[in-house]
Amino acid sequence: MNELELKYGMNPNQKPSRIYMADGSDLPIRVIQGRPGFINFLDALNSWQLVRELAQATGLPAAASFKHVSPAGAAVGLPLTELDRKMYFVDQDGELSPIACAYIRARGADRMSSYGDWAALSDVCDADTARYLKPEVSDGVIAPGYTDEALEILASKRKGSYNVVQIDPNYNPAELETKQVFGISFEQGHNNFTINRDLLNTIVTKNTELSDEAAIDLMLSLITLKYTQSNSVCYTKGGQAIGVGAGQQSRVHCTRLAGNKADTWYLRQHPRVLDLPFVEGIRRADRDNAIDVYISDEADDVLADGAWQRVFSSRPEPLSADEKRSWIATQTGVSLGSDAFFPFGDNIERAHKSGVSYIAEPGGSIRDDNVIETADKYNMVMCFTGMRLFHH
Predict the structure, then answer these.
(1) Helices 251-267 and 321-328 meet at what angle, rounded to 10?
(2) How far apart are CA 356 and CA 235, in angstroms?
(3) Per the residue annotation, which of 68, 86, 134, 253 is the catalytic one?
(4) Which residue among the candidates 46, 231, 237, 261 is catalytic per the annotation?
(5) Is residue 177 in some structural domain?
(6) Pick from 1, 26, 33: nearest CA to 166
């Protein structure tokens, strides 16, 4: 199959719409179920590249949760802890497959942003992963294959209209890629730059102790950034993204946005949040929204009389600003990647507030000395990669 007609383009008025291979070859994808749209395929193909590269770089299964052509979360398939299971509302008993763990953690990074996501898996989608996907609000999934049991489970999602796409794992694009903007064609070489452990060898801070775990987190952050709309910054910890700041014109705004998401991820581990008394049968989206509001500065919106009764069986006590600050201050060991150099030390100051201990950025700013000095102030490890990772 050389081309596939789509329902419409980015918006309903943009017709006709299709994907096709300009060289006349067959498409490397097969739609098993559903009818993916234009944005679905942008998410699918970008997210597939991310998980494929992440699996190659780390040797671990990888998954991503994409929304509007940027990752809401990405992770490798490390086992779930009991805290992970409680935090991500995992009901399945027993040990889960590595690829299922990867997607659960990717989806759990920012559940608000992942609502209605596109899922990407580096490995064959199995029954464990399909069972977790089934109740989630998601537009579709791309993977190199599916077990029969997984397809049977996904066939019942959205009354059989859930988008299931299979991609040829051996497919590689042409060296040159083109796109059109306003009728004008652009051409450039495909970004084949490889991100691996060697990229982290240039450590510019006084502290040079980069653990294997931190190296995986830094590679995860950089590979995530390679497929995130720029400017972008990514916080990671324990093999998963915990905060992605995408598409901001100011780099410090990226750092703040991603840092705030990382803080929210960590606040969800607060004992009072883990023990929130939800009403029986609450919808997942309502539960996630209630948590997000409860730990925000607008907690009264969900705790006011007439509001809390809709989501809680009893009214929980709010977390004070001091309690939230004190909890966030206990966060440590976070890694941070940036798709271009930090121009000022203020980015490092903000990163420190979210527990960042390791940083990877290209370097090359005229104020590198100030950035390094700020990292040294907090005994951080900082690597200069020498490579920008813009993506548009």
Answers:
(1) 100
(2) 8
(3) 68
(4) 231
(5) no
(6) 33
> Which member of 13, 172, 192, 392 is catalytic?
392
Q: Which backbone phi and psi does 55 adopt, to 5 degrees?
A: -65, -40
CA 71 to chain CA centroid, Å, is 4
- How many whole angstroms separate alpha carbon 55 and alpha carbon 51? 6
* 76 and 46 both lie in a single domain: yes
Do 99 and 242 lie in one domain? The reply is no
Residue 253 annotated in active site: no
pLDDT digits (tens, 9 = 90+) for 297-337: 999 999 999 999 999 999 999 999 999 999 999 999 999 99
- Going through 124-222 in order, the beta strands assigned E by DSSP cover 138-143, 163-167, 176-181, 184-189
Output the domain CATH number for residue 18.
3.40.140.20
| 68 classed as catalytic | yes
Task: Quote the domain boundaries for residue 8.
Answer: 3-167
Whether 194 contacts 209, CB under 8 Å: no
Query: Which is the catalytic residue, given 67, 226, 237, 352?
Result: 67
Catalytic-residue membership of 231: yes
Same domain, 281 and 304: yes
pLDDT tens digit sequence for 130-146: 999 999 999 999 999 99
